[in-house]
Amino acid sequence: MTLDDDATAEILAVAHKIVKKVTDDIEHDKFNTAVSSMMEAVNSYFKLKETHGIGTSKAWTFAIESLLQVLAPFAPHITEELWNQLGHGTTIHIDTWPKWDEAYLQTSEMTIIVQVNGKLRAKLQVANDVSEDGIKSQALSEANVMKFLANKKPTKVIYIPGRLVNIVI
């Protein structure tokens, strides 16, 4: 089965993201979040498999091998066995650590969390180039946010760039 360019890009985006995240987490002794990130990656791979199928593409090979490599410090025995089943003659523990490509980490959208009085009320998917005022107006016009505003005027709207809008009433 051959993958189209969009499927390949999606698979590689997940793979490069997980390599970077786990590498950073290990360097900062955040082992629980590293494991959590790998579990999220596996879930993403299953969704991508359902959508695009799985085959012997370079994208899937990189995704599976890099996941095994970053998982190896946490589950050495099973990753060694799976590494050998993939056809590698050497041990996974002396192979090189996978490298990520920043090009696959760039997205055209970002997720903005919207809170009302400090409680999560919505998540917005917005383009990276939307202005602060545009993001604030989208947050204020979100249906679930409007429900909690109950026609009250916000006393303050706090925007943390690229991350959060907190509406205080």
Question: What does this protein look like?
Answer:
The chain is an alpha+beta fold. It has 2 domains: 5-105, Orthogonal Bundle (Isoleucyl-tRNA Synthetase, Domain 1), CATH 1.10.730.10; 109-168, Ubiquitin-like (UB roll), CATH 3.10.20. Helices cover 51% and strands 16% of the residues. It has 6 helices and 4 strands. It has helices at residues 5-27, 31-52, 58-71, 76-85, 132-141, 143-149; strands spanning 109-116, 119-127, 156-160, 164-168. A 4-stranded mixed sheet has the order 2-1-4-3, covered by helices on one side. β3 (156-160) and β4 form a beta hairpin. α1 runs parallel beside α3 and α3 (58-71) packs antiparallel against α4. The longest helix has 23 residues, at 5-27. The mean pLDDT is 88.
Strand/helix succession: HHHHEEHHEE
**Which percent range fits the helix content?**
40-55%
N- and C-termini, Cα separation: 54 Å
Q: Total strand count, please?
A: 4
| Second rung of CATH, namely the architecture of the largest domain | Orthogonal Bundle
Which band does the percent of strand residues land in?
15-25%
Contiguous helical run count:
6
The CATH superfamily of the largest domain is known as Isoleucyl-tRNA Synthetase, Domain 1
* Overall average residue pLDDT: 88
Given as residue ranges, the uncertain stretches (5+ residues, pLDDT < 50) are none
Domain count: the total is 2
State the CATH class of the largest domain. Answer: Mainly Alpha
Strand order within the widest sheet?
A: 2-1-4-3
CATH fold-level assignment of the largest domain: Isoleucyl-tRNA Synthetase, Domain 1
Which structural class is indicated by helix and strand composition?
A: alpha+beta
Biggest beta sheet summary: 4 strands, mixed
> What does the overall shape look like?
elongated
Question: Using only CA atoms, what is the Rg?
Answer: 20 Å
